[in-house]
Amino acid sequence: MSPHPLAPPAPHDLVWLDDPASALARAALPAWVSLPALDDTPLVVRRDRRRPGEIPVGLRGRTRAERFGTWIAPSAIRMVVTPMELAARRAWRLRPELMALPAIRLLDAIADRLDDAGIHWGVAGSAGFSLACARNVLHADSDLDLLVNADRPLAASHLKLLAELQRAAPVRIDIQVATPYGGFALLERLRSGGRVLLKTDHGPYLCDDPWQPSPCKS
Q1: Same domain flag for 71 and 87
Q2: Are 116 and 193 part of one and the same domain?
Q3: b/e string for 65-97 if b means 16 or more Cβ within 10 A?
Q4: The domain containing residue 69 runs over which residues?
Q5: Active site annotation includes 39
Q6: Which of 18, 141, 145, 209 is catalytic?
Q7: Per-residue pLDDT tens for 32-64?
Q8: Could you report the per-residue pLDDT of 143-180, keeping only the tens digit for each?
Q9: Which of 45, 162, 182, 212 could be joined to 200 by an S-S link, Cβ 3.0–4.6 Å?
């Protein structure tokens, strides 16, 4: 786990607050939010830069309907864990109680293949959240969310492996690809042949090349 970094945390990173009550004092929190629980439960960094100088974060409750987005000051962050750190240290092998879950069994089965291929990947979504703290939000039907960092277009061999995993895995895999300009769903690009909805810090828009984005004309 990393202490508060010099650079702002990236979307999908998990952050812990030094003093949750103070950090969220200006937010109109929903009733399901437990400030004491946030002492050891992370928030998820979002894509939203409407407040320059602040970090957009999301809080999650016990159900899918319990989601709340807000902003915090960078100085409020005590610790950061990235999806890539969870993958690199094989965090699931430290949580034997989760190994019975299909998403975690699949994660263990494909991790070495992803590393051997040279793909820069991490664990995101419910799996990443559950591996980073003591609170498990996974269940038997949970998808496996992966994040692939790609500063340049993915190599053909990487696309082939990732497409194969999405097609053949016994658990649904949701692979998000993060470019310098935003993130997109790999499955969408595979189905369209290129065009994707790129999620950026300033909102989503359709583009043909997420590494050299310009809005689609139609």
Answers
A1: no
A2: yes
A3: eeebebbbeeebbebbbbbbbbbeeebbeeeee
A4: 2-81
A5: no
A6: 145
A7: 999 999 999 999 999 998 888 999 999 998 787
A8: 999 999 999 999 999 999 999 999 989 999 999 999 99
A9: 182
